[in-house]
Amino acid sequence: MNALNLPAALIERLHDAYGERVGEVLRGYETARPVTFRVNPCKTTRQEVADRLNERHISFSQPEWYEDAFVLCGGGEDCLIGTPPYERGEIYLQSLSSMLPPIVLSPRAGETILDMTAAPGGKTTQMAALSGGKALITACERDAIRYERLCFNLRRQGAERVSALHTDALTLNDGLKFDKILLDAPCTGSGTIAPGSRVRFSDAYLSKCAALQKKLIAKALRLLKPGGMLVYSTCSVLPEENDDAAAYAVSLGARALPVQLPVGIPLLPSRQRTVCVCPDELYEGFYIAAFIK
Ligand code: SAM
Fold first, then answer.
1. What is the pLDDT of residues 248-282, one digit of tens each?
2. HSE-CB for 1 with a 13 A CA cutoff
3. Which of 2, 24, 31, 152 has a C-alpha 20 to 30 A away from that of 190?
4. How much is the pTM?
């Protein structure tokens, strides 16, 4: 019996992937991470947010690699949810690891960008913010309820220039062509397990996710302009959804680009040029790979 009552099939997969290092992953799962959020520069400034937190005697830190990211030192989400800055979309609750793929994608003004599987829109709104609201972003989501949530977040975060599409990305017309695509793929979520998580995992579910991820990768490569960039990410630490998906992209002719994360982010072994963040007391498990078509 393990502390989190994890399914035996998941533990077996982790052992196969990481051998003796599996203990690091399990310790990461057992650690409650602090509340983290991102400032929305379309609506406020870092200084204003820091002043508000100081006024309320809420202490915080900031990772060196992202000026807009804040980490609360103590206190739960209820310190922020329902407060005016939260309701006005000046801040967005988001894990630190989940802020990394948009930074790797590095959206610029004027670029056409597809966020292929976008809801609830954390990374869509981050990409809008990173481009100063000037990238031409299309955000696609197939689930109706999650699509509503995406639209709500786009409105609240002031990302009005994003075009939201309620559709299955696999049905998009291949005639559409984008400069950059973020595929933050649906996955087992094996990186995000934390105390209190209800873990849904089976080998069949893993195979289903891996098959869909490959279909989405093939589609993304068809929707990219020649020379365009694909960033593939999951909140999983399992190679079946990560390195195997990256190898598939390469088998379809994509060229892997090196992904480099700031020093100090804990990493698990992964295929060359990709990164797999190891869950710990600050970071969720996450995988990022980047390609040029
Ligand atoms: N990037 C999002 C964020 O940062 O807020 C999280 C995306 S979540 C990992 C994956 C999303 O993909 C889910 O909302 C799921 O409903 C959606 N999805 C799954 N298959 C899809 C498909 N074929 N087309 C479009 N969306 C899809």
1. 999 999 999 999 999 999 999 999 999 999 999 99
2. 1
3. 152
4. 0.97
Q: In whole angstroms, what is the distance from residue 70 CA to residue 6 CA?
A: 30
Domain made up of 97-292: CATH architecture? 3-Layer(aba) Sandwich (3.40)
Task: Collect all residues with Cβ–Cβ distance below 8 Å to 112 and sequence separation of at least 6.
Answer: 135, 136, 138, 177, 178, 179, 180
Which secondary-structure segment (H or E) carries 156? helix 144-156
Q: Is 143 in the pocket of ligand 1 (CB under 6 A)?
A: yes
CA of 184 to the centre of ligand 1 (A): 7
The residue extents of the domains of the chain are 36-93, 97-292
Q: How far apart are CA 26 and CA 22, in angstroms?
A: 6
Q: Is the CB of 141 under 6 A from ligand 1?
A: yes
* Token pair 């959020």 in the structure block, residue: 37
Q: Which two tokens stand for residue 227?
A: 């020379």
Active site residues: 235
